[in-house]
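Researcher: For the record, we're logging two predictions in this thread. I'll number them. Prediction 1 follows.
Model: Prediction 1, sequence and structure:
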Amino acid sequence: MSAPEDRRSVDRYFDEDVGYWSDIYEDHGLDAQIYRRRRNRVVRRIEELNLPAQTATLEVGCGAGSLAISLAKRGLDVTATDSSGQMLLQATEAAADHGAAITFLRADTQLLPFEDSSFDLVVAIGVIPWVALPEIAIREMGRVLRPSGHVVLTSDNLGRMNVVLDPRKTPAFGAFRKAIGRRLRAAGLARPAPEVSAAMFRRHRVIAWLLDAGLEISSSETIGFGPLTLFDRHVLSGTASIRLDEALQRLADRGTKPIAGAGAHQLVVARKGD
């Protein structure tokens, strides 16, 4: 599948599932807790940059607009893009409801429609897993960033605990699973592979893409633990999973190894040189 076809498939996926991404932050389950924590950590890291009011800010892949609205309310001059028309519609309506002044544009993350050095802050949350060529997307973020500006992004962590510990998901058996899956699908004994799915990457790979884009790493952390599964079946109840996630996050925040590198999402802050 070529990159343009990939993008159209991803756009269809988000267009059809816009309600889920619009409501996820209001849910009470573990996934919602992790997504809220990821958003809140991103906001905290941006606040720590002590940016002046009206800082030119680009959010790439704004989704339903939750983060863009939060940043606009903090006084940043926010431009938000997404390749999904339905997501942009949802975000535009949400911004109007909150009285947030945001410029929304439909755009391909891998070909941003902005001049070089247009923004002082570029934010991309939950975007890297869904682009065909993440290294190109990151290079574009670096291109539109001004010297001394910052990129704040997240990626889905291939080393996440709930993937590594489940024999049906662990990367150690990845090639074997793919070969068996192809045989079963060819024989009509398994469902077709999903049209699109989120890609996960090791931390060092994402860091390498940022460095190649001319960015220096300021900080990184992992966020979110669980749900624990065994052969794709949940091991713990919803309440127990939430408590375990909170306990493991506290350990990760203290730098406890190997927990510190085993979260579901990798959050990285990087800076462009002067």
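Researcher: Logged. Prediction 2.
Model: Prediction 2, sequence and structure:
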Amino acid sequence: MTEKEYRLERLKQKQEEFQNRRIVVYGTGINAEAVLKSFPELNILALMDGKQAGEYLYGKRIISMDEARLLNVEVIIIAAEVVSSYIISERIRPFCIENHITLLNMYGYDEVKLHRQVLEQELKYINSNKKQLMQQIQVHDVICFQLLDVLCACTYFDKDSFWCALEENIAGDERLNVSNFARNRKRAEERLQKNQVYTLEDVYNIFQTVTSVSREERKQLCKTEEHFLLEGFIPKNQGIDLLNWASEQGKKIYIISELHISKENLERLLRELGIKKYQAVIQESLFHLTFSKGALRVGLGEDFGKRTLYI
């Protein structure tokens, strides 16, 4: 099941809540088309998109927010992936609150309620302590730990500082003769499409076309970056101790990684950090899926839907 299919399935499960209400679908892409095709029985008045208002698409007129107010719209369904849905919600949520319009994402969740729940949770963070966190772990079945910032820290503030440090390291390697490495490394990554799943090998394939390095140099550069990256991580012992304690309590542990390194080096990093037992690492490049397109759902497998705590 694709993430789009999963979203539509979740939306169908919530259908009774908005079955007989005046609905507008926010969006004009393939997700909007899928909602229209999947719910022909709903009272969907129109599509909504400020930039295309007045046009017609998929047999519906595209309206503005002012027109939605005139039509006494009761529900707006955002037909978009997670990241885009969040951006749209931030933009139109005040309008929906002001006009008493229920704002739903494609999973069928009320965006206004979600925003309030998240905000209330964030207000509690400053007063949280280790004991409370351990109590929360006890009442959850699955615990997800973020790799960076929770289990380890990086010695570099951002990608540019990392690439500049790597450039100095490469300059001392007699096997490599690469000029302007940091600039070209940045150019290579910028050529990858936004929200595209990629590995370091993908980056260095582009790097090779940008710089005309040899095939051997490309492979060595890729290995050098991975090893240099691994050496720059500092263990966060409090987070690691908490993970190992949660594992001892019989909890299923998953690690969420934002890196693009190979599975072999990722496992090596976790061993060196002192992480003893976990179910799996969820990393976009390992699943060839972005998080917004279902990497988390696929990575958790049969544990998806269980009571889960994200740290």
